[in-house]
Amino acid sequence: MTEQTVNVERIEEVANLFGSFDENIRALENEFHVTVVNRGTELTVSGEAEDVMLAVRAAEACAVYIRDGADRAMSRFN
What we know:
Helix content is about 55%, strand content about 20%. The chain has helices at about 10-20, 25-30, 50-70, 70-75, and strands at about 1-5, 35-40, 40-45.
């Protein structure tokens, strides 16, 4: 079992990352077979090493997307 912490800048970003009724975090947990625990602006991801690595990458990418705003983040792909 591996554990890794993701630091999010603001509590509002954490709320957006979790989504309504925690649906986004539940989807992340289900997709990568990990457990995510929130303490303030820190997310602790635990599970098998490769699953944790992938889930952390996804969570960090989502946090950047939220922080930068959807329009600016999407412009990077155009």
